[in-house]
User: Which sequence fits this backbone?
């Protein structure tokens, strides 16, 4: 073989041996036409160093038989003279023909050009072992929870404490790659990284972030794309990331850099965009999240060019497309009812697949439709023939079918991820191969010598309850007789061999057919989940019997039943006082329920009958003190002249003492739906100094922290502030949240009165729904307990319920209360009434979300179409202003202000009072805005800092670099806002306007 000239490059293609050739030899002279496996790696060797940069990568390509460029990874070898060409993690398609091309433009390290284009054809083996080696592009529509890269499979368990694991293809060598904080989805493998999407740690809004972590688990996770669609629209294709942010589709490098906008919404700015990529085409569709209207189905090239409408929005609306799958011949649409349609790739010949109904999930692959229906995965051809069952006992709530390299992955009813080999359709337990015994409600469960052969499973679940790292079956059984169960027994079963680890007979003789529950949680603080069983024993009164078992040393130990704590109010004192108060007390405090507004007839009857306590109908497990173990609480009602005459509710809480094996009384809480209720602390002498010191620290807090309390996360502004400053006092609502696991529970929402000078604080109303308004000497508020309209004097006395209906929003103007009743029935509508609750008048039949009143008009957001309306204060002249508004409605002399919610923030709009001259003011508002003295105060989405701008939207100025979560009130000299790292740690702060 002769040496070629200095002005060109020679190279060699390696298969199993190096084959040399000159640059002027035709491609047919290369060893073309080889048949290789689906993960073949080609090596190109040159006789000189290669200039390897982003431009060089454009001159080495692999195309399929249709000429479509395939996703490939190029690597420069250590000798600087060779380049490896790798397929993506899914490999090449079996039976397909491919061409490796080296085109003109490739340069040596001395910038010498390759003179002649060269190519080589190769074919992929197609035998029984390789028929289904590629992956379905529709995994993205199934959350892409499983990916494969070489010999390793990576997966997310998609729980609220999700993690990413890896294991070998045979299920061995399982390792933790990444420990998450929230659900993880959209996994992709590329260039030594695992890419994934999870909830953003930077905001409490419905915002998601794309991360990547090294596939060996080393190092920290890197943030790639900060703000994604709430629907986790993210995909890696080739060497690029594609993602949706605020109804825009972007393409960026794999590190998230150099983003390019490919699509700026679909049809409207409020369209939510969904997409998937196949064969260098982006298929995208969506819906308008304000109107619910479908926005059609389109396709375009991966560079954003060649946009085409496949199915117009009229057709898409009729099908209500929930998810879309694409294969080589068809597009499949599944609607929210589980009905599936298909069309060709041009959107023609739309057909309803009548043989598919109530489908939960769908994935089309290699000429078959794989679908989930009522706990079973089936496969079927598009014409309805050749149906077969792939897997049983599938979690119908998970709704995810991933197909990766010839295996179908799914979650079973025990939240374990399983796989089926599609080459021979044999089940493989995969991740939990040793746990192969499963159980199901309603099945027969017989243990010789323990229960009857006809015993049925009442409830069951699977979880690790002995701390060995493996899940056990927890099974509650009974004999089914006359629509009830008798002879109740609890079993713990080894899932690997079916052996019974331990069992116990429950002392409760029977329970109802339905309403029985098994929950798991750590009550005895040993960091292992205990078994809590609630049996519905009286359906008419909703009464349950409760048991808690701990499995220690593989033996069931009962640590709670109903006999272990006092019953029917024997754990607190109560009495009816002569001053028309009910006093409920324990060692630390007492509560007063004020019956002063009670009518004389009822009160006199009450004095005759006395008070009585109800039975316990339910026990709750809650980690109220946040020590990692659960307390047990129950509600008992104090009743009056009849069983249903509920005067107040007493919540008592107990904690299990592991050392003594007994439940210890902790505290009580009292609430009343119809009567004012207040708590009086009983301070011991040694506590008084501590309280005085704490108050002093509050006064001197430089940050202006009103008091260190639990989070007061607020709802959207109703034109009425959550905090009002008046005559040296601050009145505000504090929502108090407690974290239980990954969820937050609202444990209270008191209305406080704070002396600005001394910091002294008092509760003047116990249950307040966020917004308040002061009119004269009264504060008006909505009760969070019953949704009724209330008023209370500024000193906390004379709390009065003005309306028992479900009030959503209100405004007090000129001796009238205007409010919206949010019920979608004949009771719903826009109302007004006098300040004492009399002269109730219905102004409109519309159910309103929010309301504001200015001069002679009532403005409101209609719950049915989320458009702005107005009606005269006498109920006449109703008008639709034809503008979409989602929340935070306010009206003043300058016009109407309102917000429209987007995926991560909200846009502020303004219009004249008659609905004309609508204009956009800002697109980046977090939480609420507040208008005071011709200025708008708000938090900007980009930096979470507080800003001020003119009432017309001009002249925006940052007021502070302090991060904030929401503005809850503005006064003449101060801005009040909330901030904190988590929902249960937020506090109220003051920002002085002259800073």
Assistant:
């Amino acid at each position: 073989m002769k040496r070629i000239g200095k002005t060109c490059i020679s190279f060699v293609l390696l298969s199993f041996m190096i084959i040399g050739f000159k640059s002027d030899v035709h491609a047919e002279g290369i060893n073309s036409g080889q048949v290789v496996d689906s993960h073949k790696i080609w090596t190109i060797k040159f006789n000189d160093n290669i200039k390897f940069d982003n431009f060089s990568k454009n001159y080495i390509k692999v195309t399929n038989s249709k000429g479509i460029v395939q996703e490939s990874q190029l690597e420069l070898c250590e000798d600087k003279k060779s380049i490896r060409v790798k397929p993506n993690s899914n490999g090449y398609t079996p039976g397909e023909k491919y061409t490796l091309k080296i085109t003109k433009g490739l340069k040596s390290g001395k910038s010498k050009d390759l003179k002649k284009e060269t190519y080589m054809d190769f074919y992929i083996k197609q035998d029984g072992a390789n028929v289904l080696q590629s992956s379905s592009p529709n995994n993205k529509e199934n959350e892409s929870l499983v990916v494969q890269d070489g010999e390793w499979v990576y997966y997310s368990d998609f729980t609220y404490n999700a993690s990413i694991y890896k294991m070998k293809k045979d299920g061995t060598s399982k390792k933790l790659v990444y420990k998450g904080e929230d659900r993880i989805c959209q996994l992709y493998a590329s260039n030594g990284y695992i890419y994934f999407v999870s909830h953003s740690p930077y905001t409490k809004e419905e915002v998601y972030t794309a991360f990547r972590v090294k596939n060996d688990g080393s190092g920290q996770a890197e943030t790639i794309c900060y703000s994604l669609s709430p629907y986790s629209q993210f995909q890696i294709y080739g060497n690029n990331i594609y993602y949706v942010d605020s109804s825009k589709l972007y393409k960026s490098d794999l590190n998230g850099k150099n983003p390019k906008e490919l699509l700026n919404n679909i049809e409207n700015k409020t369209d939510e965009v969904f997409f998937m990529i196949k064969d260098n085409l982006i298929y995208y569709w969506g819906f308008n999240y304000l109107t619910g209207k479908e926005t059609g189905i389109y396709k375009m090239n991966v560079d954003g060019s060649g946009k085409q409408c496949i199915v117009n929005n009229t057709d898409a609306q009729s099908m209500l497309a929930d998810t879309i799958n694409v294969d080589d011949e068809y597009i499949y649409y599944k609607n929210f009812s589980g009905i599936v349609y298909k069309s060709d790739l041009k959107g023609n010949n739309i057909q309803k697949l009548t043989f598919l109904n109530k489908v939960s999930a769908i994935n089309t692959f290699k000429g078959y439709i794989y679908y989930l229906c009522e706990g079973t995965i089936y496969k079927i051809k598009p014409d309805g023939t050749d149906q077969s069952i792939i897997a049983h006992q599938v979690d119908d709530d998970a709704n995810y079918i991933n197909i990766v390299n010839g295996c179908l992955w799914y979650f079973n009813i025990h939240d374990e991820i399983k796989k089926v080999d599609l080459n021979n359709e044999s089940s493989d337990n995969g991740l939990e191969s040793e746990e192969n015994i499963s159980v199901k409600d309603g099945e027969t469960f017989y243990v010789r010598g323990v229960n009857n052969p006809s015993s049925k499973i009442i409830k069951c679940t699977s979880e690790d309850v002995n701390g060995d790292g493996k899940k056990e079956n927890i099974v509650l059984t009974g004999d089914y007789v006359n629509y009830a169960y008798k002879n109740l027994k609890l079993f713990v079963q080894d899932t690997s061999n079916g052996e019974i680890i331990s069992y116990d007979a429950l002392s409760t003789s029977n329970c109802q057919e339905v309403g029985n529950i098994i929950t798991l949680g750590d009550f005895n603080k040993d960091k292992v989940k205990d078994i809590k069983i609630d049996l519905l024993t009286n359906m008419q009164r909703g009464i349950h019997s409760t048991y808690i078992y701990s499995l220690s040393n593989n033996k069931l130990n009962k640590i709670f039943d109903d006999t272990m704590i006092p019953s029917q109010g024997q754990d607190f004192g109560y009495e009816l006082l002569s001053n028309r108060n009910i006093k409920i007390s324990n060692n630390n405090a007492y509560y007063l329920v004020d019956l002063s507004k009670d009518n004389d007839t009822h009160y006199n009857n009450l004095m005759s009958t006395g008070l009585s306590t109800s039975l316990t109908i339910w026990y709750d497990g809650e980690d109220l003190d946040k020590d990692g173990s659960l307390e047990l609480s129950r509600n008992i009602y104090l009743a009056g002249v009849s069983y249903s005459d509920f005067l107040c509710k007493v919540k008592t809480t107990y904690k299990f003492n592991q050392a003594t094996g007994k439940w210890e009384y902790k505290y009580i809480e009292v609430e009343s739906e119809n009567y004012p209720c207040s708590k009086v602390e009983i301070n011991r002498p040694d506590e008084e100094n501590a309280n005085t010191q704490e108050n002093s620290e509050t006064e001197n807090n430089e940050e202006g922290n009103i008091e260190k309390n639990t989070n007061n996360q607020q709802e959207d502004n109703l034109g009425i502030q959550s905090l009002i400053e008046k005559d040296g006092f601050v009145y505000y609502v504090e929502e108090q949240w407690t974290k239980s696991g990954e969820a937050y529970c609202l444990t209270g929402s008191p209305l406080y009165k704070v002396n600005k000078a001394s910091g002294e604080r008092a509760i003047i109303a116990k249950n307040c729904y966020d917004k308040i308004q002061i009119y004269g000497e009264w504060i008006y508020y909505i009760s969070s307990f019953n949704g009724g309209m209330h008023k209370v004097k500024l000193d906390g006395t004379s709390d009065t319920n003005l309306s028992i209906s479900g009030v959503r929003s209100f405004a007090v103007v000129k001796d009238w209360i205007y409010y919206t009743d949010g019920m979608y029935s004949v009771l719903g509508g826009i109302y007004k009434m006098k300040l004492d609750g009399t002269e109730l008048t219905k102004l409109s039949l519309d159910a309103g979300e929010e309301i504001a009143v200015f001069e002679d008009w009532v403005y409101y957001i209609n719950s049915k179409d989320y458009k702005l309306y107005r009606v005269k204060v006498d109920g006449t002249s109703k008008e639709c202003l034809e503008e979409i508004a989602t929340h935070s409605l306010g009206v003043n002399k300058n016009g109407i202000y309102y917000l429209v919610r987007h995926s991560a923030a909200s846009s502020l709009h303004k219009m004249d009072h008659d609905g004309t001259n609508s204009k956009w003011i800002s697109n980046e508002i977090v939480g609420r805005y507040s208008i005071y003295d011709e200025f708008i105060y708000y938090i900007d989405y980009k930096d979470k800092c507080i800003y001020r701008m003119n009432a017309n939207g001009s002249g925006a100025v940052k007021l502070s670099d302090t991060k904030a979560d929401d503005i809850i009130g503005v006064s003449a000299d101060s801005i009040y806002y909330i901030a904190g790292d988590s929902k249960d740690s937020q506090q109220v702060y003051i920002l002085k306007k002259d800073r």
Observations:
- DSSP finds three helices and 83 strands in the chain.
